[in-house]
Structures are given as C-alpha cells and as structure tokens.
Amino acid sequence: MAESNEDEIIITEDEIKDAYQQVKEKVEYKQFKQRVELHLDTYKDSAFMSKDGILDMAIQEFEEGQNIQQTHTNQVEKISQLIEGNGNISIQGRLLAISNIKTFKTKAGKEGKVANLTVEDDTGKVRVVMWTDNMKYMNRIKEGDIIKVNNLEVQKGYTGDLEVVMRSNSSIQVLPEEAAPNAPKYEEKITKLGDIKEDGEYNIIARIIKIGTEREIPKDDKTLNLITLTLMDDTANMEFTLWNKDINLIDTLDLQENDTIKILKARAQYRYNQMGLTNSWNGRIVKGDYDLPEYKQEILKIGDAKPAEDVTILGIITRVYDPITFQRKDGTDGKVRSIEVADTTGKIRVTLWNKETEIAMDKGDIIKIEDANIEEDDYNDGVRLNTGWNASIKINPDIDTQTHDELKALINTTPTPIEDALDINQEEGRDIDVIGRILSIADIREFERFDGTTGQVRSLDIADDTGAIRTSLWDEKADINQSLGDAIKIENAKTRVGQSKMELSVGRSSRIITPSDEEVAKLPSYEQLAEERYHEKTLKELEDGETDVKVKVRIMDIGEINTFSRDDGTDGKVRSIYVADNTDQLQVSLWGNDTDLKFPEQAAIVIENPRIQLQGNDELRLTVASDTNLRQATQDEAQSIPTVHEIRNKLYPEKAIEDIDDDDRHIRIKANIQEIDGENILHPMCPYCHKGATRSENGFECNSCGQEIETPEYLMIIKTVLEDETGTISATFFRKEAEELISTTTDEVIEIFEKTGDESSLAAKIEDLIGHEVTIVADAQFNEYEEDVKLNVKKTEIVV
C-alpha cells in the first residue's frame, strides 16, 4: 500500500489480511485489497469514517456477492445502470443542484470540506459527493451546466439510494449543450413565499429580517442545534431553519440581517399550524443583491412596555446576573439568567433561557432583542421581557451613531475608586462596580440562618491605588477561583457600614468576573499594595490599638479549642496560640471558625491587620478579627523569619533559679523536681464562663455566674517545686503542659478517677517524677501572699 500521512486513516497489510479471511472463498486477495485502498482513498478526509468502517464496507460488498468490477476506460455510464461497487466510471448530464460547502473536522483534527451535486441524464438522476480535494471545481460550475464527472465510485448512500463519490483524482468537465442533447432542461423557477402552500422543494428569493439565537432540542440521547432565519419578500414572511452543521453557513456566507439571498431547493413543510422552510441536503444559499422591498423594524421604547408578544427592544445592559441552574419536571437541567436593559425612556428586566444564558455579554454592551414577550412581573411590581423560543439576541449590533451615543451615555461603566467606596459620608446601599487586587482572603465560613438553613460567607480585602475595602462574599459568591494577589472585578457590589468603615457586600445580585488585561494593567502589583497598606513591624515594636500592621512570625505553641456560651445562648469557640519572632512572643486569640487552625506548630505565618490590645498584665495580645488576614508565609517571607531554634535561643534565655526576677518572661529553666502535688490535680470548671465550680446538692455550681452544672469541664493543674544548684522555686503546670508532664491526658485522668472512685489514685505515679529533670519555658510572677516569686509554665520541653 502507498504510505499515508499522519492525518489519514492508516490500515496495515496485516489488518487487510485479517479482514480478508471473512471473504476469501468469494474473491482473490489482490482484488479485496484494491477495494480497501479505493475506500481508503475516497474517505481519507471524512470525519464520519473509521478504519473498521472501511474494512467492513469492503467485506460487506463481497459477502453480498456483488459483481465488483473496475473499468479501465473511465467510460460514461448511464445513471440508471449504475451498479454499487463499480469504480473508475464517469457520468454525464445536467447539473440540477449544487449544495453549499460544509466544513467538518477529521479525526486527526484537520479541517475537511464536503458538498453535494445533483446530476441528471435521460435515464435518471444521482447525487455526487465532493470532498476537500474536489472543491477547486466549485467555482467552475453552476446550476444548468452540462457536466461530465470522471473517476467516480458507486456506493449506497445513507438514504439507501445509490450515489457516486469523487476521489482525490476525480475531475469535472463543463461541456457544450450539444454534448447531451437528450439531457433534461434546467429551469430555475422562483416561488413567492406567499405562494408556498404545500410540502415540497422550492426556489425562493427573500430578505433576511431576523437571524435567531442558536437553540438546542434534546432528542433521544443526543442534542439537536438550530438557528431560525425570518425571511420576507413582497408577499409574506416565513421562517427558514438551519439544523446542526448547517448553522455554520451563517458564518461561512457572512449572512447578516437585511441581506438578500436566493435559496435553491428549500424544503417546505407544514408544521405547528404554519408553513416553514428548512435547508435540504442538496440545497444552496446564494447571497446577492436581489430586488426586494426594504424592511423597517419597529422598535418598542422601554418606557412604553406593557404585556405584548413579539416585540423588539434596543437598549444598553445596565446589570448582568449570574446564570442559575434549575431542574425541569422531566429531571433534566435548565438554565436561566436575568439582565437589566435601559433606553432613554426607561429600563426593564429581561429573562434569558438555556442556550441564551451562554451568550457573552457585559454591563455596558448594547443589546437588541427581537420577537420577545412582555409579561407581568409579580416579583418586581412591573413588567419583564421574556425571550422565549422565537427571540433573537444581538450584542453590540450595527446601529446609527446618534442612537449608539445616546445609549452609551445612560451608564457609566468606569469602576468606582475604592477611596470613593470608603466614603462614610455617603449613604450606604449604593450599587457600585470595583476593580482591585485581593489583598487578603479568608476561608469560607458557614453559619446558620434564623430559618435553620446553612449559609456561607468569605471575607476579602480588595485594594486599588486609592485604598482598600473589606468585602463580604455571601453564599454561592463565596466560591471564587481568584486567590491572594489576583485581580478581581465585582459588579453591583452594595455598600454598607461595617466596623466604623464602609464595606462592600456581594450577594446574589452581584457579579464577580475577571478584569480585562487592560484593566489589570492599571492596577499596582500585589507587592506594592501590600507594602502601602500594611506597615511591617516586629512584635516588640507593636503598640496598643494601632491598626494596619503586619507581623511575620512562627507558631510556637497551639492551645486547645475552648467552647463557651454567648449571652444569646449560642455556643462560641476560642483558641489561643503563641507566636514569636526574634524580638518577642505574644498570645494570639482566634474566635469562631478561625479556631480551626490549618497551620502546625513551627509554621511560618503572616498576620495582617490584627487587633492589638493591652491586657491587665501589661502584655499585648493579638486578636484575629473579621478584617484580619492570617495566612501562610510565602517562600521568600519564610526565609526572613527565624527558625524556632533560633527564636528559642534568642527569646528563651536560660537562667539559674537564683537569678530569676519577678518580671522575667519566656525564660528557660533546667531543674529537678523536688516536690510534686499529685493529690488534687483536676479542678471543676463552669462550661459557660470557664470559672471555677464547686460541688452542690444537684451536682456543681459555678462560683462566678451561679449556674447549676450537671457535668463540669475539668482543668488539670499540677504544682511542683523545682530545684537546681542555686535554689528552689514553685512552678505550676496548666492544661497541656500538665498533661505532658505526667504523659496522661485530662480525659484519661477523668476515666481513671471514674473507674477507681479515688481522685488520689494517680498520686503515687505522679510522685514518681520527684528527682526527674525537666526543662521548661515559663513566666515569673511575684506571689504577694507568700512574698516570693513563682513560675507559670508556658512550655514543657523535656522531661528526663
């Protein structure tokens, strides 16, 4: 076989031999191979044929015992005498019809072309199939010509009738009229639209007055696509429908509204109480300058809108809502989308359905909607436009300059600078568009609404070169693809007063989109915005109450999550972590969903805009608030943050007991346990206010709020006396540090006490720690009652 290129179907010699085994009793191998090669050459560009299909075609021909023969003279055959399977033949006759060229993709992704001719001699007529290599003849022929088509193969078509297929080396000759004196005459009869009363094929000349929007019709297990053109002549209007791949003819022929066209072999059919036209397989659309009445379209002013059918409006899009997917009664999915359109007389809400929701459109686009219906709008106390089945939608159509400028003047599509959005002197509730970069982004948080349903919200800080604003994304709007530093555009965000500042709320009526490259180019980089917004400081440099600061730290310790009851009876959560840089260590309070920390100990993190508050012990504490961004440090940022080992060596100086001062913080002590109290290590606590509780007749009672408690929480506290070569000092271990000291969790201790009924049952085990060496990090505190210094253990590093 001849070698094929990489875009063609390739059939190996072995594959031909395997297929030949099925018909070896009926034909010589050489003849079978020639048939395969013939089909391979014929269908090399076809997107509808496969290797197996070609082999099966050859097998079927010989299994059916057909008289397969190759003529060597390329003789002219009468159309009525064509025999399926014959090749290398010619036909000659009158060219009655030429279809439009249609394109397709081959299996290799290459573009192919196909067209059909109808040729008739004095014995019959037949379809001629042309492929890509034959398209060079299309400009040399026209309906009515006498033609001879050479080097054809006869085969059965998809309708079951015989057809002839051109090969790559086939040719078409245009002959003089006398070459076929008995050929039927060609008459191109043009029928007026108003005269089409019966089903059949007609030639028409008409003006396109509307090109509809592409529609989809589900049928069985596939989807059919169609576009309907509304045509007119001086007698009537009629719809002409293009199906599936014929839709491409609109682009191929550059068909526009108001064009005049001739359609040959249009198929008429009476359906749904009206006559309509469709394109036939051998039909052709010819765009030309035909003498037809001009069409003047009546456009409804939106201010005059009232319930009516088949109206046309022209306006500018002032609002675009995101599509919504819903389930139809038959279980299939549908889509709906709303937009708002305005002209110089008013505005109206428009409902788009299914395929229409995929049409690219933006706020500020001019839109023309034809043949839509105006209906009462029960939700918005007015009317709305429903596009329905027959509507046509054009985005930014060609219109006169005056109308274009009048519509464009109705809306300002320039985004609002963020400094204007922040203006607290303006009323809240304004709808504005903003473009900026995401300066901070929080995780999605779930919440329960008053009706018991669950919602979600995500907080962002968005910044441009004029400022930064806190933005809340609600429910489905919280699921965004953008991340930290990305550019984002939000349409119809609503302003609201937040924590003494104006904020933005982004809900169902808003739209989040990616800005254009031109819009992004106008924004400063994320690094520039972050540097301008947040002032980087060390922990030691922080001051009470200051805002817009950024600290880069490592997590030194992570506390447990504690629950509490709010005044409204709902449960809350709080957690403390300790962070440090090479200047200090501070406590950070996390509340609510922020307690679900996603970073481990020793992780490098960045905290932007924390609340900074001075506590009663004259120490600062940081709080992660709603407008705080807590994130993982980038690789470059992490390299500038000291390691945990470096921080400990810098912040946790090792001291002998005799050198401890009552204001020492984060000091490391290495000492032996001289005394340890293992008798009373669990202390009941109120689960509501987390204060101490004592036993009562009904269980427990809170010492602070007086609440009766059936099951208290328990706090583990272990008191010790530590000793080194210089002296002794009292040291108290709380919670996790106490658990690490005795290698037993609070829950395990409770379980042991419940089993034994003896709260001193662990005393002997705990007292076995006497004499063991421990290394701790602790804060010193002066005990006024006993007039000495004691230690509150913050970190248990080693127990030996």
Fraction of residues in helices? 10-25%
Assigned CATH class of the largest domain? Mainly Beta
Q: What is the average of the pLDDT values?
A: 88
The main pleated sheet reads as: 9 strands, mixed
Multimerization state: single chain
Task: Sum up the overall morphology in one term.
Answer: elongated
Question: What's the number of structural domains?
Answer: 7
The fold-level CATH name of the largest domain is OB fold (Dihydrolipoamide Acetyltransferase, E2P)
Structural class: mainly beta
Radius of gyration, whole Å: 42 Å
| End-to-end C-alpha gap | 84 Å
Number of helices: 13
- Number of distinct beta strands: 45
User: What percent of residues are in strands?
Assistant: 35-45%
Judging by the overall fold, what is the CATH architecture of the largest domain? Beta Barrel
Which runs of at least 5 residues are low in confidence (pLDDT < 50)? 1-6, 65-72
CATH superfamily of the largest domain: Nucleic acid-binding proteins
Question: What does it look like?
Answer:
The chain is mostly beta strands and 800 residues long. 13% of the residues lie in helices and 43% in strands. Helix 2 (29-42) crosses helix 3. The termini are far apart. Residues 90-166 form the OB domain.
Key attributes of the depicted protein:
OB fold (Dihydrolipoamide Acetyltransferase, E2P); 9-stranded mixed sheet; 7 domains; disordered N terminus; 45 strands
Blueprint of the fold:
Layout: H1 13-20, H2 29-42, H3 51-63, E1 87-98, E2 102-105, E3 111-120, E4 125-131, E5 146-156, E6 162-175, E7 200-211, E8 215-219, E9 222-232, E10 237-243, H4 249-252, E11 260-271, E12 274-278, E13 284-288, E14 308-320, E15 324-327, E16 333-343, E17 346-353, E18 366-377, E19 382-386, E20 392-395, H5 401-408, H6 418-421, E21 431-441, E22 445-448, E23 454-464, E24 467-474, E25 487-497, E26 502-506, E27 511-513, H7 517-521, H8 526-533, E28 535-536, E29 549-558, E30 562-565, E31 571-580, E32 585-591, E33 604-608, E34 611-614, E35 620-623, E36 629-632, H9 635-639, H10 644-651, E37 667-676, E38 682-685, E39 693-696, E40 699-702, E41 708-709, E42 713-724, E43 727-734, H11 735-742, H12 746-756, H13 763-767, E44 773-783, E45 788-799
Parallel strand pairs: 4-6, 10-12, 17-19, 24-26, 28-29, 32-35, 43-45
Antiparallel strand pairs: 1-3, 1-5, 2-3, 3-4, 5-6, 7-9, 7-11, 8-9, 9-10, 11-12, 11-13, 14-16, 14-18, 15-16, 16-17, 18-19, 18-20, 21-23, 21-25, 22-23, 23-24, 25-26, 25-27, 29-31, 29-33, 30-31, 31-32, 33-36, 34-35, 37-42, 37-44, 38-42, 39-40, 40-41, 42-43, 44-45
Helix pairs in contact: 2-3
